[in-house]
Amino acid sequence: MTSQNSNRLSFFNPKILLGILLSGIGIYFAFHDFNFTGFKNSIQKTNFPLVVLSALILVGSVYIRAVRWRYLVKHEMDISTDSLFQAEMIGYFGNNVLPLRLGELLRTYFVSRDYKISGSFVFGSVVFERLLDTFGLLSLSVLLILTYPLPEDIRRLVIFSIIVVVVVSGLLILFIKKYRNSKSSNRFFKLFIEFLSGFNGLQYAYRWRVIALTLFLWIIYWTVTHLIQTAMHLEMSIFESLLVLIISSLALSIPSAPGMIGTFHLSVKFVLVTMIGKFQAEEGISYAIMLHAYGYITLTIIGAYYFIKNKIHLNVLSDVMSITKKHSNS
Prior knowledge:
single chain, mainly alpha, 15 helices
């Protein structure tokens, strides 16, 4: 079978099909009572300068992510923040248009290709970035528990998630400390250790900056979530906006079609209509559409620009998949 046919068939991967199915279910339950007239009225009343401001702030947050990523890889190589910003944008573009969050592999490929460093190390730092994001999300979740009357089952779930993340993180740190200097000749073990070396960011002088930037990023996400509802005149409290941010962020872990179509919209509508309870279905879905669209359009357009500028083609995905194998043989 040719690689072209193999790549074509890979889109029938069960995980991709499951994501499309779940997105379809999300789209149905989010939009089954969609009222176009109500949506049109909501859009006409929207303060678009605030939406544009939110988009600019979101782009700024990606630059801050690039600064944080630079600290994570600095002990291996000092890569410019501008290059990492482009990589971040390429990653968002890939996640928005490709299945299985392949944008993370695209930005790994971009940095590995341009700086001739181990793809497994770069991918390890990308995974570590996502773990830091989990830490930031759980930190805001603690704040939400202390300030908002959550249903008891959701409160228990959040507390359990915090405990699991803390325990797993502690075990991971102990594992890295024990095996990071291993001299094993086994190529798979060497590859795994190289991957784990991407987690070393917090063991160096910049760890407190990394933690501070992570918390700052989530405050920015909270801010733009609230700005969008302000632009739509929904009169949500700042902590209701925090609830939207946390629940919609948790929806990211659900397999879905590219761009979180359906699952994101359903989660936002569920918060406004069911959890908060003071909004109509048309208000919930209108807010969900705007909250998704402003970021999706902004990051996809900018990411596509850098994708084309850096001469990356979709046929590199097969190369991305083989980065690990190539470095294991070096």
